[in-house]
Amino acid sequence: MEDHLVFPPATKRRRRKAAGECDCAEPRLVVAGRGAQYPTEPTKEMSPIAALRTVVCRVCGASYKLPWRLAPSF
Ligand SMILES: [Zn+2]
Asked: Angle at the Cα of 53 (from 74 to 61), degrees rounded to 5?
């Protein structure tokens, strides 16, 4: 009796819209706070504020889970 599978069961991958996580090549990120939306941008390191706020992508409407910071132009 085989104790492992050579291949996982085949699954069909479908393009899902706003499945909960942004996967855009060029996301437009905003963070909501105090009744306004502030522009943000992806960054390499998680900033303290990033842990406290949820950023959403205006392109796909999903939340953005990677590190971000407030846009410097703001
Ligand atoms: Zn997106």
From this structure: 80
How many A from CA of 15 to the centre of ligand 1?
Answer: 13
DSSP bridge pairs for 70: 40
What pTM value is reported for the model? Answer: 0.61
Contacts for 13 with CB less than 8 Å, ≥ 6 apart:
none
**C-alpha torsion sign, points 45, 66, 36, 25:** positive
Q: What are phi and psi of 31, to 5 degrees?
A: -120, 135
Taking ligand 1, which is a single-atom ion, which protein residues have CB atoms under 5 Å away? Answer: 22, 24, 27, 57, 59-60
Bridge partners, residue 68, by sequence:
42
Q: Does 18 score more than 50 pLDDT? A: no
Tell me which residue has tokens 């990120």. 29
